[in-house]
Structure formats: structure tokens, C-alpha cells
Amino acid sequence: MLSNLQPLKVYASPIHTAATPRAKQETAASVSYLVEQLCAGSQVPEALSVLDLCTGTGCIPLLFANDLTRKTRNLNQLEVLGVDISATAVRLAQSNHERFREQANTNGLGFNTAPITRPPGVKADSQRDKQKITLQVQFVRGNILQAESTAKANVPSLTHVLQDVGRTRWDILISNPPYISPAAFNKDTARSVRNFEPKLALVPPGLPNRSDEEQGDLFYPRLLAIADDVQARIVLVEVADLAQAVRVAKFAGQTGSWDGIEVWRDDPSATWTETIEGFKIRGSGNGRSVFLWRREAACWLPLNLTKWSR
Ligand SMILES: C[S@@+](CC[C@H](N)C(=O)[O-])C[C@H]1O[C@@H](n2cnc3c(N)ncnc32)[C@H](O)[C@@H]1O
């Protein structure tokens, strides 16, 4: 089945997709808006590394790479790593990557997989130069909830994965993790989703003494801890709705790590904004993602971004 992300065409399996094709469009809107923000910055970076956790089909990082490499003129090097616990998802992401490369070649946007050919500081100024972007994409199996690998675990921990890949610092962290609480799964999801989507992709695992809401939110504190560990300068995480978005924004505020905290609705490019519990809510539609940035990323982003103040 072809997903409806255009112009990038990727295969989505009946398993390991976000809950509905509609959710895919909304995920795509957040990712594309992030790319727009990066392209509107005063100093677009020449090299970027992007870590996508719970990558599923890999559609988020491939869309990001597709949009960014088409829209920015400065980029020399883009390194992308997608991590997922499911072997099926990782295989699918790898074949989507192959398909992405074929499309890029067909469209004359071939990428180097060799080391950078342009010295740092020299800007790309032609379509020919753009072909010299060095793009490295990898999809790897890993369990992001597990800090350390244990002898019993059959999936490597994220720490292990990052050591193997040879990079422990990542500029941008993106994730669309499982975020549906067990009650919402039973009450709000369509029967087709309940019957055909693996619960692992949608509902976080249960832990003792957690409320239904806490189980739905389980991945976010871990994602924020990982963002600190890998020194991510920008984070974009997808959420179920506005209420969860505000809870995640609060978790982020409590870490003291972030200079900017915003909630993005389904269409974050729509101008309408409001403030809820001190957090700027951008765009129109349902609460869709939480966007965080640190001071070090300020020059990559538009000047009119407001700082979050406690
Ligand atoms: C909602 S799906 C998102 C897929 C993809 N990011 C997208 O937007 O289409 C969540 C993904 O998280 C993965 N996942 C669940 N638990 C995980 C864990 N502990 N570590 C890594 N990935 C996990 C699932 O296999 C699934 O592919």
C-alpha cells in the first residue's frame, strides 16, 4: 500500500503505521513545518544529524530528508538514524529508504554516500552542487525504553545502538511514539485499528502502579531524558491530543533544558495561536506535536520564535 505522503512515496505496511492515514497527513504537516522553520532560520546549518525514535516505516525521517534536501541550499551533510523495536518495521523502513534513493536519483537529486565533497563554509549555489549533499540514512533495531542492554533482552538498548552507530550526539530528535492509553485504545480507536494494528505500536507497555493516563504518557519522560543524553538542540514529538501535548510541554518545562516550548496543532502553519498554561499553541486543528529548542539552535530558527519563560 502506498502512503499518501507526497511528493515522497513510501510503502506503509498494514502493520506499523500510525493509527490512520489521516494521522499520517498530520504527522507530515508537523515534519514539513519543522523543515520550514529550519529553512527560515538566520543561519541554516551545513551539517545536521537527526535521530528518529520509534521510526516504524521510516516515513518521518525520509520525509524530513526529502523536504530539507530540496528546500535548503546550505546543507552539506545530513545523517539520519531511525530506531524501532520491531524487526518488521526496520525491514520496511530499509526498503522505503531504497525506494527513496531510487526516487531521488530519478528526480536528479542523487546523494553522495561518500564523505563531504565541499569544504565547510562553502555554500551550495547550483542544482549541480546540491547533488553533492552527503546523506547517510540507517534504520536499526533497538529498544528505546531500555537504558542498558541486558543478557536477557533480545533487542539492543538505545545506548548500545548509538555506540554501534558511532554517534552519541544528535542535533534533532523526532519521535512518534506509542501514546494511546489503554482506555482510549478500547474507547476511541476504530475496530479496524484495534483488530489489525499491533498494540505495541500504539499503546505503551503497562507498568505497576501507573494510571491509565500515565501509561499513555510513558514514552515522553524517556524521550526527554534521551534528548538530554544526546544533547539534542531541537525536539519534535507527536502526541494524541491537546491535553497530552500540554502534559508533555509541562514535563519538558520541568527538565529546565529547553529555551523554547511550543505545542503545534494539526496545521501548525495556520497563523492562529493562543497560550494554554503558559505554552504557546500554534496553528489550527487538534494538538498534534510538541516542539522544543535550546539556545544553541536559536540561530537555526526564525527570529520571531518566542522564548518560553517559566
Ligand atoms: C505510532 S508508531 C509510529 C511509527 C512511525 N514513527 C510513524 O509515524 O508512522 C510507534 C512505533 O514505535 C515502535 N515501538 C514501540 N515500542 C518501542 C520501543 N520500546 N523502542 C523502540 N520502538 C518502539 C513500534 O514498533 C512502532 O513502530
UniProtKB/TrEMBL annotation:
An annotated GO BP: methylation
CDD domains according to UniProt: AdoMet_MTases
InterPro entries the UniProt entry points to: DNA_methylase_N6_adenine_CS, N5-glutamine_MTase, SAM-dependent_MTases_sf
Cellular component terms per the entry's GO annotation: mitochondrion
Region described as Disordered: spans on this chain: 107-128
GO molecular function, one term: methyltransferase activity
Protein name as it appears in the record: Methyltransferase domain-containing protein
Organism ancestry: Eukaryota, Fungi, Dikarya, Ascomycota, Pezizomycotina
